[in-house]
């Protein structure tokens, strides 16, 4: 099945990148691995902390972010049971592999003076909950096994969501797509589909480019600092 195999990084807007990096490294023990000028954007910075070799939490800061008002229940949920605007991140759940590691993380967080509640047994996972800087709602969870769709897809909620039996089957078993080696052409812009927001003229120009033209214009492959091993070779 052709599909993503995990989260490479989740990017969080911040007006205080130093404070977020301090929290995620000190309280959660995640190592800082990247901090650089965001490619192609004036006065924007990008920072990455490492959960594993293939999973990172990223932070984006730019001057305009500090001017956006925080509204709990709109821009931020404030806790795992509250609302936030459609398309926003309601909460961020990080993974550990065992119950022992979950309790050890609770100890670590409390030793840093941060309040944390749980574990709560959700059936398919056990979770602890706490807050991060700038009203981030955070969770750490552990699952002994994957989620069993036959046990956890509730017919009542399926009906409330307006999902038909045919749609449910499609959601549970997405149709395979035959890969074409990257040769599929850009489709025409369809207003019914999701689109990134940028100035219309710029967006039309981007969509009109070939993939090779866009990559040649937008690529930034070189790191800001040459590693010592590279300099020595």
Characterization of this structure:
27% of the residues lie in helices and 22% in strands. The chain is an alpha/beta fold and 233 residues long. It has a domain at 11-148: 2,3-Dihydroxybiphenyl 1,2-Dioxygenase, domain 1. The strands form two sheets. It has a four-stranded mixed beta sheet with strand order 1-4-3-2, covered by helices on one side. Strands 5-8-7-6 form a four-stranded mixed beta sheet, with helices on one face. The radius of gyration is 21 Å and the shape is globular. The two termini are 41 Å apart.
CATH class of the domain at 11-148: Alpha Beta
Enter the CATH topology name of the domain at 11-148.
2,3-Dihydroxybiphenyl 1,2-Dioxygenase, domain 1
The largest sheet, given as strand count, sense and whether it forms a barrel, is: 4 strands, mixed
Strand order of the largest sheet: 1-4-3-2
Tell me the total number of β-strands. Answer: 8
CATH level-two architecture of the domain at 11-148: Roll
> How many DSSP helices?
8
Q: In CATH, what is the homologous superfamily of the domain at 11-148?
A: 2,3-Dihydroxybiphenyl 1,2-Dioxygenase, domain 1
Instruction: Give the low-confidence spans.
Output: none
Q: Compute the gyration radius: what is it? A: 21 Å
Averaged pLDDT: 94
Helix content: 25-40%
Q: Beta-strand level of the residues, as a percent range?
A: 15-25%
Assembly type of the shown chains? single chain
Could you tell me how far the N terminus lies from the C terminus, measured between alpha carbons in angstroms? 41 Å
Shape: globular
Order of helices and strands: EHEEEEHEEEHHHHHH
Which structural class do you get from the secondary structure elements?
Answer: alpha/beta
